[in-house]
Design goal:
The longest helix is centred in the middle third of the chain and has 20 residues. A 9-stranded mixed beta sheet has the order 2-6-7-10-1-11-12-13-14. A 3-stranded antiparallel beta sheet has the order 5-4-15, with no helix packed on it. The protein folds into 3 domains: 280 residues, no CATH class; 113 residues, no CATH class; 58 residues, Orthogonal Bundle (Arc Repressor Mutant, subunit A), CATH 1.10.10. The chain has 474 residues and is α+β, with helices and mostly antiparallel strands. The protein is built from 15 helices and 16 strands. Bound molecules: zinc ion (ZN).
């Protein structure tokens, strides 16, 4: 590996969160019956005229600002011509030489990865193939004309893992901005990659291979790792690497050749004659800048500084905006960052994942979580009782303070009451007492366990141990 150098660039397509399509008023609602969200414009009927969705432009600019790009004061749309059954006009309205924004970067770890350009375009329809017979294919035009943003990186990513990290950071940023829901399973975030590998001693760049059809961040990493290895094997055998497009086969975990350069499209780009050049006013940029607020990278750093959290904790708590908001809201009820962070990470996130629930839909409100953590830290209830409460509230949404009394979970910290139980346990377990006195110290743990059991898990373990030890050494 050490003698080779890998260079990766990514092309990420993101469906923008607008109510209507890019150039018409049709709805963008996902999951509707096929061909129910269409009109003459997005069906490409002759004589129709596109009208630009300004909201989509604003979302593009918002992303561009967050990715440190230069925003062009004037940009144009172009026609990208090609024939495909899901593209009724035989061209796609897109951008080419004069996009919304260029020359930005995204910080991943310690490295700034360059963003070549951001452009806006319309999505195509969707083909549905009959997989059993392979005889028929249907086309659903609901997706045709949905606003799409393409983000192209510089070839500056140096490993498949770094490509996955980049995508995770980008997804986090875009979700934070409310620009897209970024659901890969629904196709609202898609990624193609290109990769080249060369010997470090070679001055010339390696041949570029394009990789498509990856449906998750994990498959992007795996697809690129497979391709990296395949090219290295070829270089070792002095074979020529073809410039081609390959598809990732998820089932077989391999890449397969799709087309070589000779078959590549010539898109014959030319300016879209039905749309005027778009001029961006500086006050629009200022307004969007003001809307953006704190970005996830900034929030992650602030969490470390302000709440003294580790970089690991801050990264987890800022992975999603909803989690970060939840965390800070909980702190407003119980200002113990490390405790709240631990409970969110070890308990809450597990429950959310198990039940496929979003933090915003969760019945454990930040206030309820804070109340539980507070009761545990004050020894009012045990940690185990806290966890039990959390699971119950997740389902019922009951106030933990009410539930604690209802379920009689308040810990016994009253010395007299604990002494009474200890007395009983000593009576019943004379052998263990003798064992302890003859030097078998582990017998103490057994006795503590018995006391807690007899108290129905309500005796405070620390207190039990303290009193018991004193009694035994008398
Ligand atoms: Zn339409």
């Amino acid at each position: 590996m050490d003698e080779f150098q890998t260079v990766i660039g990514l092309e990420v397509h993101v469906e923008l969160l607008t109510n209507s399509k890019m150039f018409c008023h049709c709805s963008t609602q996902f999951g509707s019956r096929p061909n129910t969200q269409v009109c003459p414009v997005c069906l490409g009927l002759p004589g129709t005229l596109p009208v630009v969705n300004e909201k989509a432009i604003e979302l593009g600019i918002k992303t561009a600002i967050a990715l440190n790009c230069k925003i062009n004061d004037e940009f144009i749309f172009v026609r990208k011509s090609y024939f495909y059954p899901d593209l009724p006009k035989n061209f796609q309205i897109s951008q080419y030489r004069n996009p919304v924004a260029e020359n930005g970067y995204l910080t991943v770890g310690e490295k700034n990865i360059g963003i070549t350009r951001i452009h806006l375009e319309e999505d195509t329809g969707k083909l549905i193939h009959d997989e059993q017979t392979g005889i028929w294919s249907c086309v659903d035009f609901n997706r045709s004309g949905i606003p799409l943003m393409e983000i192209v990186t510089e070839p500056e990513i140096s490993s498949p893992q770094e490509a996955e990290n980049f995508l995770q950071k980008l997804k986090r940023l875009i979700s934070y901005l409310g620009v897209s829901d970024c659901i890969m399973e629904e196709g609202s975030l898609r990624c193609d990659a290109n990769i080249s590998v060369k010997r470090k001693s070679d001055l010339k760049l390696g041949t570029k291979v394009e990789l498509k059809n990856m449906n998750s961040f994990k498959s992007v990493r795996r697809g690129l790792a497979y391709e990296e290895q395949r090219i290295i094997e070829m270089l070792k055998e002095n074979r020529t690497v073809a410039q081609e497009t390959r598809l990732w086969n998820e089932a077989l975990q391999i890449t397969e050749g799709m087309r070589t350069k000779e078959e590549a499209h010539d898109y014959r780009y030319f300016p879209e004659p039905d749309l005027l050049p778009f001029k961006i006013k500086s006050d629009l940029i200022e307004r969007i800048k003001a809307e953006i607020g704190e970005l996830p990278n900034e929030r992650e750093k602030r969490f470390q500084k302000e709440y003294l959290l580790s970089s690991y904790d801050s990264a987890i708590l800022t992975a999603e905006k909803e989690i970060s908001d939840y965390f800070e809201k909980a702190l407003s009820y119980h200002n113990e960052p490390k405790q709240i962070a631990n409970w969110i990470q070890t308990e809450l996130l597990g429950l959310l994942k198990e039940h496929h629930t979003k933090p915003g839909e969760c019945k454990i409100t930040p206030e309820f979580l804070a109340k539980i953590v507070k009761m545990v830290s004050q020894d009012k209830i045990s940690g185990t009782a806290g966890k039990t409460l959390l699971k119950e509230i997740f389902l019922t949404g009951q106030d933990p303070e009410v539930l604690v009394n209802e379920k009689n979970l308040i810990q016994i910290t009253d010395t007299k009451e604990i002494e009474k139980i200890i007395h009983e346990v000593i009576e019943q377990n004379q052998q263990a007492v003798l064992d302890y006195k003859s030097g078998k110290t582990q017998a103490l743990g057994f006795l503590v366990g018995q006391v807690i059991k007899q108290s129905k898990n309500k005796a405070n373990p620390g207190k039990v141990k303290e009193i018991l030890q004193k009694k035994m050494n008398e």
